Amino acid sequence: MRVGTALACDVGCGTVFSLSVGLEPFVSFVRGTAEVGKIIEILGQGFTGTTWSRSTGPRNLHGEKRHYLAATVPAGATSGPVKVATPSGPLTRNTAFRVRPQIFSFTPTSGAVGTPVTITGVSLTQTTGVGFGGVPATSFAVNSDTQARPRCPPGH
Question: What is the Cα–Cα distance from 117 to 93, expressed in whole angstroms?
Answer without folding.
Answer: 37
